[in-house]
């Protein structure tokens, strides 16, 4: 037998109840709902009258859910989630995906590949948010992200390994020729070092010159890896960078590796997305494209995890 929907309480009242249950404050709930505080209080009174129970305990400076209110709100939230899922399912799939990435990843890896994505998937508009700030999938309207870290990244998220982070020392081939060949680890003290925000030089120097305290000729500090790489290409010094970022510059002869030593910090690049993305079909297309490491394919020296 179908339910008697006429006996259901007001949907606006239920919405007000759910919001108030989170804030435990009529004023804050009113701000979220964009109505007056009095309107919210009236919605709650009407709902309590309809149900014949008290949903909130009115305390001197706050509210508290009653035992009945605690049980009721859990089911109401599930009902709203079902409505939200049904609504998303019936809407046409949007033709855009917003992806959060670090600025250096955007500059050195993602943006050079965008023409290839557009050629293969012209129906999807890829929107890139390049920021060092960690994006929030719920509040920032972000569909997916590329993050440097260690999996897992949190409950409710999927994390697919894009590439292992392998750090190498690179510089201009012209600068290397001036130094003479073959280069020795101690030569690092005669070359300006380009430091970025990852601050990996002390660890790398400890690997190539164990037990020593090398003094480079000059330290230059740059807050983005991509800018440090450009300075290295320009012959201004030696940079530490992920092979993910410099493989194509090495293949093109713009950079050379100065030493064989590789630093593996243990943090890697992952494609991260909610387990239940808002736009699942489009997000899956972008995820698969990212993981395929589509063109450009100059990946000399690129090392992936097994």
Task: Record keyword descriptors for this entry.
306 residues, alpha/beta, D-Maltodextrin-Binding Protein, domain 2, 3 domains, 40% helix, disordered C terminus, sequence-specific DNA binding
- CATH architecture descriptor text of the largest domain: 3-Layer(aba) Sandwich
CATH topology heading of the largest domain: D-Maltodextrin-Binding Protein, domain 2
Distance between the termini: 56 Å
- Looking at CATH, the homologous superfamily of the largest domain is Periplasmic binding protein-like II
Mean pLDDT: 86
Shape: elongated
How is the biggest beta sheet arranged? 5 strands, mixed
**CATH classification, class level of the largest domain:** Alpha Beta
Q: How much of the polypeptide forms β-strand, as a percent range?
A: 15-25%
The strand order across the widest sheet is: 4-3-5-12-6
Parts with pLDDT < 50 across at least 5 consecutive residues: 297-306
When the domains are counted, the total is 3
How many individual β-strands? 12
How much helical structure, as a percent, in the residues? 40-55%
Find the structural class using helix and strand composition.
alpha/beta
User: How many helices does DSSP assign?
Assistant: 10
Radius of gyration: 28 Å
**What order do the SSEs take from the amino end to the carboxyl end, as H and E?**
HHHEEHEHEEEEHEHEHEHEEH
């Amino acid at each position: 037998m179908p339910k008697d929907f006429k006996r259901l309480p007001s949907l606006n009242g239920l919405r007000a109840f759910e919001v108030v249950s989170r804030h435990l404050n009529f004023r804050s709930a009113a701000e979220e709902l964009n109505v007056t505080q009095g309107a919210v209080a009236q919605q709650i009174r009407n709902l309590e009258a309809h149900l014949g129970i008290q949903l909130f305990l009115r305390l001197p400076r706050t509210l508290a859910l009653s035992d009945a209110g605690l049980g009721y709100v859990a089911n109401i939230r599930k009902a709203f989630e079902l409505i939200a899922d049904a609504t998303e399912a019936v809407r046409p799939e949007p033709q855009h995906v917003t992806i959060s990435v670090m600025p250096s990843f955007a500059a050195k890896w993602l943006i050079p590949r965008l023409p290839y994505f557009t050629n293969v998937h012209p129906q999807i508009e890829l929107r890139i948010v390049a920021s060092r700030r960690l994006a929030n999938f719920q509040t920032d309207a972000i569909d997916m992200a590329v993050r440097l870290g260690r999996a897992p990244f949190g409950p409710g998220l999927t994390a697919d390994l894009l590439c292992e982070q392998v750090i190498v020392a690179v510089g201009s081939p012209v600068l290397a020729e001036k130094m003479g060949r073959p280069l020795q680890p101690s030569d690092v003290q005669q070359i300006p070092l380009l430091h970025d925000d990852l601050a990996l030089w002390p660890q790398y120097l400890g690997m190539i010159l164990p037990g020593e305290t090398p003094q480079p000729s000059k330290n230059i500090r740059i807050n983005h890896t991509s800018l440090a790489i450009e300075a290295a290409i320009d012959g201004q010094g030696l940079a530490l960078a992920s092979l993910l970022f410099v493989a194509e510059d090495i293949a093109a002869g713009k950079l050379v590796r100065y030493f064989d030593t590789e630093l593996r910090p243990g943090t890697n690049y992952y494609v991260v997305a909610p387990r239940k993305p808002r736009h699942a079909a489009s997000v899956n297309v972008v995820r698969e494209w990212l993981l395929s490491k589509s063109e450009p394919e100059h990946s000399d020296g690129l090392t992936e995890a097994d």
